[in-house]
Amino acid sequence: MSDLQTPATRPANPRFSSGPCAKIPAYSLDMLADAPLGRSHRAAVGKAKLKRAIDQTREILGVPADYRIGIVPGSDTGAVEMAMWSLLGARPVEMLAWESFGEGWVTDVVKQLKLDATVTKAPYGEVVDLATVDFDKDVVFTWNGTTSGVRVPNGDAIPADRAGLTICDATSAAFAMELPWDKLDVVTFSWQKVLGGEGAHGMLILSPRAVERLESYVPAWPLPKIFRLTAKGKLIEGIFQGETINTPSMLAVEDYLVALDWAQSIGGLKGLVARAEANARVVAEFVAQNDWIANLAVRPEIASTTSVCLKFTDPRITDGAAFAKGVAKRLESQGVALDVGAYRDAPPGLRIWCGSTVETADVAALMPWIDWAFQAEIAALQAA
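The structure assignment produced for this chain is given below.
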């Protein structure tokens, strides 16, 4: 092991966490100087900032003009819960899960809302075949499995004339992948993922069909104030114009606006998608060159371009969890990759964030270090 040479190049930014994710390139706290701190979010300056965050989100993501976009509490989790508690129960429900967060939504619907939902699951590395799903039911699913490294390849299997609503958790997909808005009725995400914003705030996007459901259906269960989207049978339109349900952090709002400005400066969604795809391509090429590591996704077309999950396949490894933890620890101790261990509920391995704020040169610099850490861990295993 002492003969192993450490790579000559190091990532300039070792932050490859899958959330909170890396800040935008050349980020500085000085960029937040215009934040209206110590002011009410209901003052004109606060309302303007919140409205701008909604408008720029719409512009960059290409959200249709008749879809509502709201800033809600509780990050992506809060946005998904708000949608499920407010919308589900009017029709039969089908829950799709292929990773831990999708499993969490299943638990909430079946055990908390106590709905008799159809539950369709796929193992880690796979996604449910959408062609087998009944979209006359309300369907809840994640677009990109943050903890499993797989994604829905496209929305082709979702019918335009569906009777049910599609509720999509897109938190690690929005701003890095094309989303078919005509196939999605509810979309949620959080600021701390692809754009590297600060946490605690979620985004809730509603189609006209979702709004119609909100205004025509009253759930059988009580809704806490923080989940209420209607009043007297009508949508609370202010929520979708920047009048948040509770007090937002104007510092976090400013941080999101800075990230949105950067996104526009690199070509908007097209530029963001290209950066994530280039990053994931570097990892894919590395995997193809080494037979001791593989993508957790079983097929290239469903492999995530943001939360890239890898597994070690060397037959000399007897304890996969301990080995992967050892590799991640070596990378962190060298200061070349922070927070790259697999999610606690996922199969052992590495999880490398390749989202749009990550520089491709840093991903490329990391690959030889993974090789070094693997070889070092194998050597330690053989010497034990």
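Interim note for the steering committee: The chain has a mean pLDDT of 97. The longest helix spans residues 360-383.
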